Amino acid sequence: MDATPPNSKPQNGKKVLCIEDEHFISELYLRALRKGGYDAKVVIDGHEALSEALTGAYDIILLDIMIPSLTGFEILQKLRGPDAVQLKTKIIVTTNLEQSEENRAAVEKQADGYIVKAEITPNQLVQFLDQLA
């Protein structure tokens, strides 16, 4: 007998760290990620987020740029800069912050993806993550 409840998606085994300080957005993402089969955790503080990211326990990190104590830029630099520990984690930058093409290009060189939050629904975010190798 199948133990999976009807209308539920089986877990895909992927762990997601969502670094997001906007409560409403983080709740929407958390619900969509869990519904999509992801094991997801939300962290709102930059220092805590960096510590959590450095555990290497996550397959994907959704990294907001504007968060308290450390910015997403600083976290990205610590995770992907020249002196960074090599993690196999995919890092997707999520932001609504207007950026110059030069700044965006610099971020995209270190990240595995770049999403403007206002241009994507939580369900589309899950679909995007499903496509990551």
**Structural class category:** alpha/beta
Q: How many beta strands in the DSSP annotation?
A: 5
What CATH first level would be assigned?
Alpha Beta
Could you name the ranges where pLDDT drops below 50 across 5 or more consecutive residues? 1-7
The DSSP helix count reads: 5
In CATH, the homologous superfamily goes by the name: Response regulator
Which descriptor suits the 3D outline?
A: globular
Instruction: Give the strand line-up of the largest sheet.
Output: 2-1-3-4-5
Number of domains: 1
String of helices and strands: EHEHEHEHEH
What are its keywords?
single chain, 133 residues, alpha/beta, Rossmann fold, five-stranded parallel beta sheet, globular, disordered N terminus
Textual characterization of the structure:
The protein has 133 residues and is α/β, with parallel strands linked by helices. It has a single domain (15-131), classed as Rossmann fold, CATH 3.40.50.2300. It contains five helices and five strands, in the order βαβαβαβαβα. It has helices at 23-35, 46-53, 72-80, 101-110, 122-131; strands spanning 15-19, 39-43, 60-64, 90-95, 113-116. Strands 2-1-3-4-5 form a five-stranded parallel beta sheet, with helices on both faces. β3, α3 and β4 (90-95) form a beta-alpha-beta unit. The N and C termini lie far apart (32 Å).
